[in-house]
Amino acid sequence: NHLYKEKLDTERAICEEQRRLKVHQKSVEDIIESKAGEMKNVILVIEKSEDVIKDKMKEINKVDVELLALEKRMIELKQSKSELLNDCNYEDDFLQNNYQRKEKLECCIEKEMKKVKEEGRVIETMIESLNSELIETENAIENLPNEVLTFHVKPAVEPNRQFLEFIDSQISDKEKEVECSVCLEVAGAPIFMCSEMHLICSSCRPKVKACPECREVYS
Please, are residues 199 and 192 in contact by the beta-carbon 8 Å criterion? Predict the structure, then answer.
């Protein structure tokens, strides 16, 4: 009887444990089922995040390519700027040299004009003196008897006239060299000019924007 009772207790214990196992398995299945949906959602979120990361990486790569292009363009622009600065410095030196040349030419022209005017005054004085001598000679000739008039005045006067004509021609040539191309008057200092050295006086310079001879625009 004792063994039979022990057997029954053992069988009941086994049944109880089997029942508990089924309950546990059912609980595990319920947990797995409930977590499966959550796991699916998490996996979808992970996949979506991975896709977003891939898209962002593509954009980053695109930005890197654009940055490389911009850096290359920046280097090219810096090089271009450096070349332009060098050109500007060269042109500035060239401009300063031309300003100095212009000032020297103005001084030279002014000196030449003073010299020409002084020579003109000397010549005018000489002409007045010669005219006075001529008048005195003509008066003396009129007062002489006819038989005394055996010499010719013309040869004595003619050389002086040729000399005066030569001087007048020289003065005229000098004045033409400093003649304003707009008003055609003799230009006085300061004298302006284009790169082709065409002169224009200070009165006409503000009235025009370009050289009237070569059409170069004044700077």
Answer: yes
Question: Is 154's pLDDT higher than 80?
Answer: no
**Cα 110 versus chain centre, distance:** 34
* Residue 201 dihedral angles phi and psi, to the nearest 5°: -80, 165
Alpha-carbon distances of 22 from 9, 19, 53, 129, 208, rounded to whole Å = 20, 5, 45, 154, 112
Which residue type sits at 200? Answer: I
Name the token pair of 34: 């409930």
Q: Tell me, what's the pLDDT at 155? A: 45
184, 211, 189, 186: which is closest to 198 by C-alpha?
Answer: 211
pTM for the complete prediction? 0.38
DSSP 41-80: HHHHHHHHHHHHHHHHHHHHHHHHHHHHHHHHHHHHHHHH
Q: What is the arithmetic mean of pLDDT over 11-26?
A: 88
- Residue for token digits 């940055």? 67
Q: What is the rounded CA–CA span in Å between residue 58 and residue 62?
A: 6
pLDDT, greater one: 113 or 77: 77
Torsion of CA 115, 117, 119, 125, to 10 degrees: -150
Q: Element (H or E) spanning 160, and its range? A: helix 154-177
The radius of gyration of the chain from alpha carbons, rounded to an integer in Å, stands at 57
pLDDT of residue 1 exceeding 70: no
DSSP symbol at 202: T
pLDDT over 80 (residue 160) = no
Q: Can you give the length of the chain in residues? A: 219
